[in-house]
Specification:
The protein contains one helix and 58 strands. With 676 residues, it is an all-beta fold.
Length: 676
Amino acid sequence: MIGRRPRLAAMVATSLGGVLVAGVLAVAPGSAAGETTTAAEPAALGWASTSLSRNSGIVGSHGRSVAVAQPGVTPAGADRSSVRISRDGGRTFGPSKDVTGRPLDVTVDAERLWVVSRVPGQVRELVVQSWDLDGGSVVSAARVTAPSAIKEAVLAIDGEDLVLAAGLDGGAVVTVGSADSGRTWATPVAVASSWVVGIDAAVVGDRVVLAYGVRPDDWATEVRTTDDHGATWSGARSLAMDGTLSPSLAVTARGVSLAVVVDRAVTVRTSIDGNEWSGPMSVMPVPSGEIGASIAAYGDAVYATSDGTRIFGTRDGSDWKELVSPAPLRAMFPTLAPDDIDGFVATDDGVGVLNGGVLVRGYRDQHAPSARFTAVPPAITRVPNQVVRFTSSDPDGPGAWVRYECAFGANDFRPCSSPHSLAEWYPHLSDSYQTLRVRAFDAAGRVSPVVTTRWILDQAAPEPPYRTTEQEITTASRHTFRWRGSDADSGIASYDLRWSSTAQTASRMSRAWRSAGGVRGTSVRLGVARGKVTCLQVRARDRAGLASAWSQPDCIARPYDDRSLARSGTTKKVRDKRFYGGSATRLTRKGRLTLRGVEAGSVVHVVYKKSPRMGAGILRPRGNVNYLFGERGTTRFRAAWRFHDNVRRPGPVSVRVSEPGAIIIDGLAVLPRWAR
C-alpha cells in the first residue's frame, strides 16, 4: 500500500501524518511560486529530532508506525544492516533487528514492516523480508532474481498482493508480483528500457501506479499503471519533461500526487485514478544544487519538500503554504545538510525528515515543555563567572527543539543557551545574592514554567571579631572568653582560635600559640595560671571559606599569690580558705610586699580583704608617686583595686600599709601594655 524511491528516499505513505492542529493544516503564511492566495491562520507545530545512528537510511510509515532501515558494516567488512520500529510516531524506537543485505526500500502497512534488500555478492538478487509490527518477529523472507544487476527497488502492497519494481543496470525496469504476501513470486515483467535513476510506486484503490526517471533526449518522468498487480502495464505517460530523474508519489484522500523538480521548483501533479493527471503546480523553490522532490500525504493533507529544510503543505491541493517553524529547519537541526534527504514520511501525528541517521519531526504540540538545571553554582561561592547548564523535556516528544531565555537577578529575560556563562551579565555579577531564571520555549511557542537557581557570591572576608566582655583580671583558674563576629554576605561558618600564656612581667606577649579551628560557638573557657596573662585571638571564617584578620588580643591576668611576692618589714601570714590561694599577708608598721621587674606601661591590680576596720594601703610603682587604696566596708574577700595610672618606669612595684592600721593583701596582678 505504499511505494518509495530509495535514492532520494522520498517516502510515500498511505497514512502520512497530516500535521493537523484542531483540524487545521499547520502552514506558515506566504505563497509558493505563482500563488496569490491569502494564507490561513497558521497552527503551531512542535519540532523534535531522534538520533538513530550516524549512517544514512531509508524510512517508511503507516499511522503511528515508523520504520527506519540503515546499512552497516561489520568489523570484518561484511554488510550488517538493521531496522528499527517506532509505534509512537517516531518519538521512540525499539531495538535494532538484523536485515539481510543492504536495504533499498522500507514499506509499512497496518500489520507488517517490509524491507527490500540487495543480497550481498549477488547483484541480481533481492531479499524481501517482513516483520510483525507488534512482536517484531520475522514473518516471511523470500529471494527474487532479476534479469540483470539491480540498482534500485521499490515495493507496493495491496493486502496480500505485492508488486516489486526494480531498476536494472542498463536501463530496464522490471516488476515481479506476488499474490500470497511474498511467499511466492511470479516471473519478472519488463516495463521500460530507458530508465536512468529514481523509481517509486503507490496503490490507488486496486491500481498500482509506477513512476520512474528516464532520459530519452532529456530528463523526464514516466508513469505507468497496472490493474492486475504487475502482470500487464499501461503505456508510458511522460509527465515531467526537463525535470528530475527521481519522482516521488503519495497516496492522498483524493487519489495520488506526483512530485518532481522542474525549473528549479518542486512541481506537483494530482490524479484520481493514476491515469488522468492535472497540470503542474509549482509548490516551492529548490535550493541551488538540489534536484530531489519528496511528497507525503495523510488523508487530504499533502506535504512536499526538496532538501528537508523547508516543508510546504496543502489541504485542497492548491493553496500550498510553508509549515510553521520558529527558525529555518536547517538552523534548528544541523543534521539537515544541504543535500538530498534520506527519507520523507508522515504519521497520524506529524511529518518527518530522515537525514544522516536523524529523524526530524514536526508534530501536533499539545503541552508546554519543562526546564531544569543540570549544573548550577555552589550555594555559596567566591567565583563570579560561573557556568550554568540546563536542559528541558517535552511531554509531546523526546528530543523536542526548544529555545531558552535567561534572566539574571532583576534583569529582563533575553535569549540564552546551555552552557550559559554568567560573564554575559557583567557588571551585575558583584551582587551578593544572585539568581538566574530560565524558561524554555518549544517550536510551537509554548513556554515552560520558570525555574530559578539561587546562590550567594561572597568575595569579601568577614570583619575581625570583637570581644563582648571587659575584664582584666580573674582569681579563678579558668576564664570564659566571649566574642562576636559578623559577615554581611554568606554569614559566619566558624572561628579559628589561638592563645598563649605569658608571665605578667614579660616585655612582650608569647608567640608559643596553642590553637583550635572549626569552632562554632562564640565563647571558649581557657586556663589562666597564677602570675600569667592568657591572651586569645579569634578570626572568623565565612561560609565561602574567606577568613578575617585576627582580632586584637583579649587578655586576662591572674594575680600573683602573696607568697610569690618579696616580703620586708613586719608581715604576718593569715589563712582562710576564702583567701586567694587559701592564704594572705597582714601588713603592719613597715611591712611591705614587692613584685619586681614590672614593665613600664603596665596596669596594677591589688587584691585585698575589705573589712570595717581595715587600714589604708599604699601602692608605690617605680617612677610614680604613692597612691592610697582601700576602703572600709562590709567584709569581703578577694576585693580588687585597679591603679588608675600606668607604671611609668620599669622596675619593682610595692605595697605597704599607711600607719596606723593594718591591711591584708591577697595578691598582686599586672596587666602589661601589650595585653591591653
